[in-house]
Request: fold
Amino acid sequence: MPTQILMPALSPTMEEGTLVKWLVEEGQDVKSGDVIAEIETDKATMEVEAVDEGRLSKILIPAGTEGVKVNTPIAVIDTEDDSEESQAGEIPDTKPAAIDKGHADARPFDVDVKAPRIGAGTQSKLEITLGTETVVVTMREALRDAMAEEMRRDPDVFLMGEEVAEYQGAYKVSQGLLEEFGGKRVIDTPITEQGFAGVGVGAAFAGLKPIVEFMTWNFAMQAIDQIINSAAKTRYMSGGQVSVPIVFRGPNGAAARVAAQHSQCYSAWYAHVPGLKVIAPSTPADAKGLLKSAIRDPNPVVFLENEVLYGSSGAVPTGEDWIVPIGKARIAREGRHVTIVSFARGMTCALEAADQLAKEGVEVEVIDLRTLRPLDLETVLRSVRNTNRIVTVEEAWPVCSVGSEICAQVAMQAFDDLDAPPVKVSGADVPMPYAANLEALALPSVGQVIAAVNSVLYV
Amino acid sequence: MAPAKVQRNQSRSSSGKATSSPRAKRQAAIPKAFTREERLDAFRMMLLIRRFEEKAGQLYGMGHIGGFCHLYIGQEAVVVGMQANLKPADQVITAYRDHGHMLAAGMDPKGVMAELTGRRGGYSKGKGGSMHMFSIEKHFYGGHGIVGATVPLGAGLAFANKYRGNDNVALCYFGDGAANQGQVYETFNMAQLWGLPVVFIIENNRYAMGTAIERSSSTTNLSQRGLSFAIPGEQVDGMDVYAVRQAGARAIERARSGKGPIILEMMTYRYRGHSMSDPAKYRTREEVQKVRETHDPIEHVREQLLDEGLTDDELKKIDRQMRDVANVAADFALSDTEPDPTELYTDVVVAN
Ligand SMILES: Cc1ncc(C[n+]2csc(CCOP(=O)(O)OP(=O)(O)O)c2C)c(N)n1
Ligand SMILES: [Mg+2]
Reply:
């Protein structure tokens, strides 16, 4: 029975890939488990294994083809027809699979983002001024470049974490660093978050400048005691004698379909803690400039990256002097009717909503906080005094969130300027569900942001 | 209490007379206690797990399963051998490479597959996915995504057994990578101190994601990791379902009789990548191929059954049946509907 082999999705975010090479020829027999082809995704080159047993009768997509969409038939295999008792049959012919895709419209964010949102030169308050030479890189490259530049600059800077060296990072952020800096400065750790976070803090006590990568911030929960009790409080407890120049970094927030224990935004958890600085960039330029600032900062810095944004690209100024100061928000889009305050992946949603609202004549000012502690309230308050209306957008849970703090501060400090009560858009107040439809409902959407803006405008 | 003597690798031929014929060796390795029906059961269950996992891998490739999906292919003998020793009320807990544990515990393949596709008929109503699944009915306590966290949880299940004074035993599975987490050792200390009826099963498949055990562990004989707490340990050929079952029987009996925890280090191997998105550049294709060809746990039993006189056709038929079970599960998992949107807010806390 001829069965089609389909282009497989080899990662949670893969939509297409390059069929690098075939390892079998037409007419060859394969059994399940045989490696039949190599496919390149945005992250890596992967091997494809046969699932069925039989003869590969036809190769449909030749080696070297780029941009092969997931679920495209790539070959045909003639299977031994031994499943007469089977009701299920073999692989259904090219079903337009991907259940998730059916929800694409309902999803608040597209997984693996396209739009380079910054550096377009249209927004006035960007720190990339006209005439600055830039290069378009992905978020993951920007982060890597920041680490590499700072490691070149300062021999006390080193990177450690799970899979950061030989594997090149679980999300490929530390790609190439082991090769350039060697095993002394790019260190694979065992799976012992509390242990290596503590080792990092101790090394920082002694004056080194560790960058501690958590494979994701979910796993930093194992180490949160060291981050708060040892890193954040020591300078104070020592009467200013002991500084802790350390950066804790890694992906934060919801990834695609990885469910409750792997999808959580820790922004409020760390923003709560005196003694820490907390950063959550949304663009490659900010990510690079802020990570460099974080590494140079003499305090413990929590650096919250976003896995879904790792593949997004944007213009980043060239040269090693590109630094973004900690504690300064960025006006990503100017407007005079409503202020939206957001950060990290919430920005994708906020800017999309602003685009759509602009078509209806609503001019939204979008502020990217970039730093969550210390908060740049000045920029927020200045904007609100102008627009008299505020909506916050974030992916985290709503109770005691960064949005809660922004709304509280605005109510306390600009009450008389407000024409409407502040509105918060956030993730749903539940652990992240796995099912595609529920997951979409648990995350903030462009529709929710538009509705919130309309509500503060009383339309 | 002095640490019990650590037994080494039980090789397949160790229980029999020295002989050069592979067939005689295999025959000798079959403990008398195994009936043909038991051997066939083990064969069936291991095949079911493998076919189920292959199907899951296929559905992932087609986009029907999302997120992380960790397949158990290659490690089937471990759960199947251990589970054969359990009484119905004994508990099981493991991490995210959990599909095999659930099938072996007797959970319905349809419900497991439907959870993988995020449908309402899944064991967690579609809310948990591959890594987070439970069945109180089968005393299966997950299905957890945080490496190492299940070890104290397993001891806690055992604590409840001791507290209640029943003779149930908790099986607590974790990986070679997980064995480096600090809470594992906190747990070892408490488990021995309080004499908890728990069997710690370390599934040493040689890798934690891309890290070979030698690169992460100062000592690599994980069965000895409990010695400073006086917990005995044993390395077991985890590719041999009979060896697993025998070692498991002794360990479980020991825990059940009130002698406290024990560690079984299962020497096993995973054929597939860590999860579906693992390019697996940290090991060679030849390494994987060699284990498949020389140590496959299913092939091992198949050969013994053939030696015993079963025909290739009979065994092929069993394979087909298991394939069908996996296919039926997949059909259900694809045709079942997604959870009702109102489920988003249910089950967060117990309503009162
Ligand atoms: C606390 C924590 N840290 C890191 C991870 C990411 N992670 C998931 S599986 C894994 C490797 C675990 O390897 P092992 O314990 O050997 O189990 P195996 O995958 O081989 O079954 C890692 C690092 C995690 N889930 N939880
Ligand atoms: Mg392992």
Observations:
- Confidence is low (pLDDT under 50) at residues 82-125 of chain A.
- Chain A touches chain B through 70 residues (CB under 8 Å).
- Residues 51 and 431 of chain A are 34 Å apart (CA to CA).
